[in-house]
Amino acid sequence: MRPTDPGRTLDVPALADAAGEAQDALRRMDPIAAAELPKYLAAHEAWPEGWAYGRVPAAVAEQIRAVHQRGGDELVGTFHRTTILTGLVATRERLVVHDRWAHALPCFDDAAARIVDALPATPDEVLTYPHDAFSKNVALATGRLWHAKAQLVEPRLGVARGRLLRSGAGTIARAAAVLARIGGHAPLYEIHTYEHLLHWFTEDGWSECYRMIALALSRDPAARGVFGTAWFFDPALAEVSPRIAYLYRFPADRGAVFLRVRNGHGVEAALSKSETRRQLFAEGKYAPQEYLMIWPRAAMVDWLRSGAA
Predict the structure, then answer these.
(1) By C-alpha distance, which of 274, 282, 268 is closest to 241?
(2) Which of 165, 240, 263, 302 is buried deepest, with most CB atoms within 10 A?
């Protein structure tokens, strides 16, 4: 099934104009906060190696506190709108010549257009950490997440070993074997679901997502593969929700490994998005379960070179 939404076209000159206008408005509102913007953007672009997009360094948190002390939620919201718009302009320029992700430029433009459209109506109080939508938007805007249609991709992370250790002896043993085979728990790419990408949440969208990731991995020999954790990687969905069984089946048929892990907050979405699953859960016939998917680089690149079918 193909996406029903064809995607957005980004007006690049208009984005640059919007960023400039936002910077001017921030300077009028609070010149001191405006002077901090370059330092704040630089801190995001130099995010500590291996830190997830929502894990905020102390220096960044301190800058936000200082801005909030000067003007509360309104100033923080204005500061972060300006951060996102300014970051999108700079990151797009880098993406055009990026050694691994230049092929993602049309996807970046699609997401950027949606972010720009949504920013004016986004309440000030949610335009900051730890709100997940903001965290993803600012990470995309500053080049710490890349857009691969059905998912955002976060490079240079590692599989969380603590969660594996809490997931039982069977998972620990299988995980140890898989990680030994690929050369360790890091660095890998991690995938994330994102509100601006739901129009790509189709079989074609996911196939193209994995093709884009495989292409990046083929240019990144240090990366060991890609991983993600989700309720929709549960093999039981073949019986419970056959319409989305491809989410497990597609990577599983092409070399990915799936490990049952201790559930996190993600399982709530399994019930919130389907009346059928809610009914089966109420009848004791289905219990949401998260799985960790690891698709090794070698298997993924082999799939790409064989035609990515």
Answers:
(1) 274
(2) 240
